[in-house]
User: Which sequence fits this backbone?
């Protein structure tokens, strides 16, 4: 009797090819920005799909770092190479395009700096008036960069409250943690990783509002639903000793008043429980890192030609800590911001 095994293997191979082809047909291969994956977002007219060239950022592997921390592969996702210097450009490209699509022309954003800089750049592109609400002690370098785009700037200790008050007056609130459309621009990160480096075991990322985390999580869910991946990569959320409402749920730590990673600011994000649930569903974890660990991580990155923000350093610090406990296999570390802002 002839074995049925070759036929079964051929069918499995054929099914795998067909699934990948289906994904290829759904993406716009002529685009190298977040709109490459517009099929997966709520529809926005093509003429309203704004871009400054965000997305499709590099994945860099530095062999001596991979070897030093006993990893199979470690890729640094260079989000600092986005147009305004941070991963926030993915969010801004989508959310401001949505405003344009809905013919809205006034927005407000409460921010520690990076999100406001990014939103201001895209609002300028769309001719939308932006009010940026920031704290009086905002990082001076970030404030200087924000002023280049000439938004209205309001300084207050109650950034969230002021933004909500302006929202009641008709301004669209671009606060990531409370805007249900925040995740769509960030979904492009997961799709890019799948397209460019294939299956991964873990992704380490700094977390504030958790919008980035949830966007990446949603992209992996889509890939699993399409049978392109069997398991979700573990999501490892990284926060500091000054702000750790999510990562602190996974470990104990001694709280500090401040951290050099001042982009991680959301002490009580509305999406906290959703983010924790997503992390647990991927068998991921939360990592709380100290300023000392961040500086050590930045030193190693700088020595290897990677200049990034303290938030990116925090993500790598978590990789270093995790490597002492378990092997992550094929891992990705998000370098979310430009080194020039601190």
Assistant:
């Amino acid at each position: 009797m002839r074995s049925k095994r070759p036929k079964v293997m051929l069918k499995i191979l054929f099914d795998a090819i067909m699934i990948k082809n289906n994904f290829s047909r759904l993406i716009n291969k002529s685009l190298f920005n977040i709109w490459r994956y517009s099929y997966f977002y709520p529809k926005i007219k093509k003429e309203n799909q704004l871009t400054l060239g965000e997305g499709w950022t590099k994945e860099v592997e530095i062999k001596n770092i991979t070897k030093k921390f006993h990893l199979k592969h470690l890729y640094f996702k260079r989000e600092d190479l986005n147009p305004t210097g941070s991963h926030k450009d993915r969010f801004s490209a989508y959310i401001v395009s949505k405003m344009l699509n809905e013919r809205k022309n006034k927005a407000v954003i409460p921010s520690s700096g990076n999100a406001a800089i990014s939103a201001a750049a895209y609002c300028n592109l769309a001719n939308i008036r932006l009010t940026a609400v920031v704290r009086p002690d905002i990082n001076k370098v970030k404030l200087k960069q924000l002023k280049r785009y000439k938004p209205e700037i309001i300084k207050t200790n109650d950034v969230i409250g002021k933004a909500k008050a302006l929202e009641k007056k008709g301004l669209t609130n671009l606060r990531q943690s409370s805007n249900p459309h925040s995740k769509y621009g960030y979904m492009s990160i997961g799709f890019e990783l799948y397209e460019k480096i294939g299956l991964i075991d873990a992704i380490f990322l700094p977390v504030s509002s958790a919008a980035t985390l949830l966007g990446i999580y949603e992209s992996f869910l889509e890939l699993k639903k399409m049978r392109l991946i069997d398991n979700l990569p573990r999501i490892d959320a990284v926060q500091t000793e000054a702000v750790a409402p999510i990562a602190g749920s996974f470990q104990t730590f001694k709280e500090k008043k401040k951290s050099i990673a001042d982009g991680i600011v959301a002490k009580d994000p509305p999406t906290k429980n959703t983010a924790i649930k997503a992390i647990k569903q991927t068998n991921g974890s939360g990592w709380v890192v100290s300023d000392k660990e961040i500086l050590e991580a930045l030193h190693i990155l700088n020595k290897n030609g990677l200049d990034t923000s303290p938030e990116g350093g925090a993500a790598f610090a978590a990789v270093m800590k995790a490597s002492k406990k378990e092997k992550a296999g094929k891992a990705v570390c998000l370098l979310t911001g430009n080194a020039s802002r601190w």
